[in-house]
Design a protein that fits this description.
- It is globular and about 40 Å long.
- About 20% of the residues are buried.
- The protein is built from six helices and seven strands, in the order ααβββαβαβαββα.
- With about 190 residues, it is an alpha/beta fold.
- It has a five-stranded mixed β-sheet, with helices on one face. Strands 1-2 form a two-stranded antiparallel sheet.
- Strand 1 and strand 2 form a beta hairpin.
- The protein folds into two domains: about 45 residues, no CATH class; about 120 residues, Glutaredoxin (3-Layer(aba) Sandwich), CATH 3.40.30.10.
């Protein structure tokens, strides 16, 4: 019995100490305000929306070579370009690779360019060998090109029109063979 009183006393003392530190009206409001503030920061700090600031402006020009392949965006002017940022360690990226290849086969006038951010050249080359990609891909282990586009997470894909203007940004893996996407790209 004496042990039980001691436990109550300890709980009461702990509660009393908390009560002195946080008045009752704040104990309820602080977590709610903190949660709202965090949500607000996350929502405003993220430029992964459907209408990012660069849409409608010229695509940043780049040339990159990984020793085996070279991509120069300027040389693709006159073509619609689907610029995909990906990596071999990214599961959603790997899941969308087959539909990118199929879209390239259905729309040969569209140039699919995939920029891998893999740092491990051997893993990247092994992935290419194992999966026989049907579109142009090059490794940019430095991450220079995704930074030029403001890409933070992968996969992200940009559609660039024939004049070199950014027209659309896709965030996360897509089904590139969907009728909506094929129709959109076919009309550019």
């Amino acid at each position: 019995m004496p042990e039980r009183k001691q436990q109550r006393s300890m709980v009461w003392v702990g509660q009393r100490r908390d009560a002195r530190r946080w008045p009752a009206r704040l104990r309820i409001r602080v977590p709610a305000v903190a949660t709202l503030a965090l949500c607000g920061l996350l929502a405003t700090a993220c430029d992964r929306g459907s209408h990012p600031g660069r849409i409608g402006s010229p695509a940043p020009e780049f040339a990159v070579s990984d020793g085996a392949r070279t991509v120069d965006l300027e040389k693709l002017r006159g073509h619609v370009v689907v610029l995909n940022f990906w990596a071999t360690y990214c599961i959603p990226c790997i899941e969308e690779v087959p539909s990118l290849g199929e879209m390239q086969r259905r729309l040969p006038q569209v140039a699919v360019v995939a920029i891998s951010s893999d740092e491990d050249d051997a893993a990247y080359r092994q992935f290419l060998t194992d999966n026989h990609l049907d579109f142009l891909t090059v490794r940019d282990g430095s991450g220079r090109i995704p930074k030029m586009y403001g890409t933070i997470k992968i996969p992200e894909t940009y559609v660039i029109d024939r004049r070199g203007i950014l027209r659309r940004k896709f965030v996360s893996a897509q089904d590139w063979t969907s009728p909506e996407i094929l129709d959109y790209l076919g009309k550019l």
